[in-house]
Design goal:
Layout (H helix, E strand, L loop, with lengths): L1 H27 L6 H34 L11 H29 L2 H43 L7 H14 L21 E3 L2 E2 L16 H40 L2
Antiparallel strand pairs: 1-2
Helix pairs in contact: 2-3, 2-6, 3-4, 3-6, 4-6
Subcellular location: Membrane
Protein name: Tetraspanin
Main location: membrane
Amino acid sequence: MLANLGVNNLMCILVLRRSDFLSRVAMAMGGAMDSCGRCMKISLVAMNVLTFLGGVLALGIGVWIWVSRSFPSTLMSNNMFIASVAVVVAMGAAVMILSLLGCCGAAKEVKCMLLTYYILVFIIFVVMLVGGILLFVFRVKVLSTLEREMHASIPNYGTRREYTRAWDETQTKLQCCGVKSYKDWNDNVPESCCVEVYPGQRRDCKYSQNPTTMYMDGCFNKTVDLLREDAAYVGTVAVVVALIMVLALIFSCGLFVKIE
């Protein structure tokens, strides 16, 4: 009789301990959270996945512009173009890393990580907002001074390597010559103004200047179009990522309040 009573007591203790253990596990995994909290948790994880993809896109576009579309930057006589692209690259990498922190904080329901995530997301959002304003200011300033700066750089062709390379790449890739036309070069028309038949082989245009041998369009308008395209790419990505980050701020704040 006593033995059976002792066994029953032991079984009760084991059941209670098992129930307590399961309840702790459920709380650790978010089981104690209501349906609204679980919805915020899932939404925050989803937002961070989208933010990570947005960071990858921003990083990719920034690197692409820097590597393949920054050749006219030397002709602008300022570093604002390179600086704006560098900000895009840095923000893309930061957003990617930050999204991982947000996923971990949401999945494990760690309030400290969520608070850190919220603060960093807010800082990056402000930086992106300021960067967008600077990009707009940069575009307006470049369009107002670019023609003058391109004209001023022509005398440096052939004497300074960076200007020679910038003009050759600009005229080759944009298929243009001079600022407004080939006449800007006077009698010293660069070989890069000649039509490229295939890489390394050009037509002779120094003594036969016509549309079949020479690029007749000026580089100013084509450079402006290139910069506008770059600004449109960067601006679109920045707006999309910023909207996702606003949603991430809202869900992270709500999840932080829901965690007990």
